[in-house]
């Protein structure tokens, strides 16, 4: 079904052939999870190319494709292009110049077209199997967070907390972390991407933890901010504002909501609390095989609409330099009439 949808898109865009080199896109289309592979699609043929290390694996995994063993797939494109009488080859925009130059040299006389989102557009909409895998990745993150609450204490370093979470998620059958775990404590919590350091966590610190894992190729991405020992009134106000923004968006999400509205709902709450200048990033992103994938959101996107089957993040934050910050992030499954919150870890203000 995925290949059929992709070929329908090719037909609409007058694309004779499509070369796919991104390994996550290749996994999405074929189920192949090795590190060397190329997909070449024409109107009549589905071709998968890999080297001798993976040819047997590919034949066991991939159906409805011709498997060709080669260490140099680009060199085959001239013959393949001639045999199919194609006039153009579309390739993914993520390729580097060296790849493009080799492709151009190997296919003289053919028009080369850069495509940005053909496969990514398909990947926006998750099927039931994908949703179940994302739910499992979220459940692993939830459980790891609850364990971390018992581990975090004054004197622990941010790196110790990050390592604890990473190891715990692997212990819970995650195949890996979905990005470098963020642990930012004290004044460092004002850094939206404050990667863990050797700083010791102190009594009275806010601690923002942004982390996730992969489970059978699919990602989770969650953020919680907790407090160690105590929390002052200003930080409590900031926390409750962020939580209100997060939860207000959850109540509004449903298929048909514009991307602009998705951004506006939480941003308005933060602005009305006079913290608007301290919410410095987008409200969220898509989630799936990549921890950051389309869709992305901003207030100018009035023509784009949420659709059922999308998995997206809801991550408002307030970051005051030299003071501290708070972010709360959940993963949401968009449905026709609302959304399902996939991350279940508590969001009430936690002081440990």
UniProtKB/TrEMBL annotation:
Start and end residues of each Creatinase N-terminal domain = 2-124
GO MF annotations, alphabetized: aminopeptidase activity; metal ion binding
Origin: domain of life: Bacteria
Q: Which residues cross the membrane?
A: 26-43
- InterPro entries, sorted: Creatin/AminoP/Spt16_N, Creatinase/aminopeptidase-like, Creatinase_N, Pept_M24, Peptidase_M24B, Peptidase_M24B_aminopep-P_CS
Keyword Hydrolase tagged: yes
Statement: the UniProt record of this protein carries the keyword tRNA processing? no
Residue ranges occupied by any Peptidase M24 domain in the UniProt entry: 133-336
Instruction: Give the record's keywords alphabetically.
Output: Aminopeptidase, Hydrolase, Membrane, Metal-binding, Protease, Transmembrane, Transmembrane helix
Family of this protein: Belongs to the peptidase M24B family.
**Protein name, entry field:** X-Pro aminopeptidase
Report the source organism.
Answer: Lactococcus lactis
